[in-house]
Amino acid sequence: MQRAIQELGYEAPSPIQAKSIPCLLAGHDLLGQAQTGTGKTAAFALPLLQRIDVTQKRPQALVLVPTRELAIQVAEAFQSYARHMEGFHVLPIYGGQSMDIQLRQLRRGVHVIVATPGRIMDHMRRESLSLDNLGAVVLDEADEMLKMGFIDDVEWILEHTPDDRQVALFSATMPEAVRKVAKRHLHNPEEIKIASKAATVDAIDQVYWYLSESQKLEALTRLLEVEDFDAMIIFVRTKTATVELAEKLEARGYSASPLNGDMNQQLRERTIDRLKKKALDVVVATDVAARGLDVERMSHVVNYDIPYDTEAYIHRIGRTGRAGRKGKAILFVTNRERRLLGAIEKATRKPIKEMQLPSRHAVAERRIEQFKQMLSTIVEDEDLAFFRDTVTDIAREQGLEVLDIAAALTWQAQRERPFIVEDSVTAPPPKAPTREFRERDRDRDRDYGDADKKRKKKDKIREMDADSARYRIEVGREHGVNPKDIVGAIANEGGIPGKRIGHIKLHDTYSFVDLPADLPAQTVKVLQKLWVRNRQLNLRLVD
Predict the structure, then answer these.
(1) How far apart are the C-alpha atoms of 153 and 157, rounded to whole Å?
(2) Cα four-point dihedral sign 207, 208, 209, 214
(3) According to the UniProt record, where is the region Disordered (predicted)?
(4) Cα gap 539→175, rounded to integer Å
(5) Which of these three, 193, 216, 239, is where a domain ends?
(6) Domain that holds residue 532
(7) Could you give the number of structural domains in the chain?
(8) pLDDT digits (tens, 9 = 90+) for 72-104
(9) pTM, whole model, 2 decimals?
């Protein structure tokens, strides 16, 4: 593990790590209050890995998280720390993924499970997962699980774990409901509180673009053409994406290289050395591979894929703005990632400005300027006597003006990179209002009277009804459910953005909820088996 930590660029523990690791290694329960971005994933992952017996292919540690995105992120962190632990397996379990895939991996044998509450309850009820050998349970972002209506599910899961298991609970805030869970399920815990602080420096200019997934490559290309940068690191989520995107950028004429966890230390060091010596301008990296990367000339960080948690974002943008220099962090945001943008702003305590995509005119000007510079360099450095004679012969033989020949050659030269750019990424995607629009709407709503607010709400519901369908779920007021519970469960396990979950009507023993009319069959199956307040939804379409 020390070897893995060194390769990842860790030098000294953060405050939460320095306090948590000895406590957890000693076997104590832990109640930790720390903001995202303090390094708490390593604070619990490293001591848990220390106690894993890889010869026992049964779940020995369980980490409960509020969202599928965080489940993936935490599982990837475990895998990174355990990269030299031969035979180690970690499995993220969340709704929306094929149950067959998860069952197959469980049968193969796993040591650590990182899960959202709903899906792990499904496995426990169908007896496809046994927690009898569990030595430790971690509740990560407990306050978020409370907000999403999962706290009762968390307690149910804890009640089905061995009595002698170790429990660590981490939360950014400590509402009373979270403290009650701690009192019931933690035994004489050590309490750790890390004071929050501003997570980013003023030297970093943070901006974002709204765009669709299919527009990202074209938008990045336009950015590279117009933005003045010294060196740039582009973050993506997967190792495969680092190679694919680097190849696409190289094909477009940029000096780019991937940086991922599959690269050996020698190749990694060679890539970073080329970057420092200005033999390389663009690196496409994963979060793990960029740990410890410190290159003074790194002027720009591009979040090509938005990180799933704010801690990763803070680590990413920390690659720039070093040694007193100014840095720029650019974030690509798709429609379904708007919630993540809000979470990042909250964690960094700094508003992120919307960036306007460079216009076709700006791109054309830059390409023409580069073309002029290339011609000027050729005229100064090359012997053009033969080519002048050739042009003169063409003009005489075909009766052409020299200016027309130059124009034809210019047209030929710009075919690969046209001066006139297609306007394919100028408009933001539908249903993605800018922050200015959101703030304006909020201000306007404050000024409207109650009657006008009701009219607007009805108009919004009617508009949503046009592309939504009504579903019945078998949970209601008698079961203690509220709309927030339903929205949280469906958004998390079904992968449906909260904005697309419409009107919810509660009855005593059942409820109605409006969902997108084009809901995929696989998502419907997931939601049918979803449990809320210890009730299976049994979701079905209302005729």
Answers:
(1) 6
(2) positive
(3) 420-462
(4) 31
(5) 193
(6) 450-541
(7) 4
(8) 889 989 999 999 999 999 999 988 778 888 999
(9) 0.48
